[in-house]
């Protein structure tokens, strides 16, 4: 798993979903601190809803990598919005 800190809090207990999607994209494409994928697109996290920030809570993101829909799970590591992005799962059937 790879960690990232996102400052896109919306209110006191939610992470802005747009900031989350941008952060997940960053981790998936980062060649040094992430997974280094070169063809990432269409990232949609938490069904478009702001995820609740709580240590241990998770949210899922559907993402297109090299033309295939995959899913990643992000897990909050604290109550401040820091989360880890897991490796992409197998292809998601829609």
Q: Can you describe this structure in just a few lines?
A:
The chain is an alpha+beta fold.
Largest sheet: 5 strands, antiparallel
| Helical content (DSSP H or I, runs of 4+) | 10-25%
Q: Radius of gyration over alpha carbons? A: 12 Å
Number of strands: 5
Q: What is the percentage of strand-forming residues?
A: 25-35%
Mean pLDDT score, rounded? 88
Tell me the series of helices and strands, N- to C-terminal. Answer: EHEEEE
N→C terminal distance? 25 Å
Count of helices? 1
Order of strands in the sheet with the most strands?
1-5-4-3-2
Write the layout of secondary structure elements.
Elements: E1 2-5, H1 17-29, E2 40-45, E3 58-65, E4 68-76, E5 82-85
Antiparallel strand pairs: 1-5, 2-3, 3-4, 4-5
């Amino acid at each position: 798993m790879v960690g990232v800190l996102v400052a896109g809090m919306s209110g006191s207990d939610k992470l802005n979903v747009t900031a989350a999607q941008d952060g997940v994209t960053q981790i998936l494409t980062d060649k040094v601190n992430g997974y280094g994928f070169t063809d990432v697109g269409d990232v949609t996290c938490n069904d478009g809803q702001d995820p609740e920030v709580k240590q241990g809570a998770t949210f899922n993101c559907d993402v297109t990598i090299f033309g295939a829909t995959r899913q990643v799970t992000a897990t909050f590591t604290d109550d401040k919005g820091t989360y880890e992005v897991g490796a992409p799962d197998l292809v998601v059937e829609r």
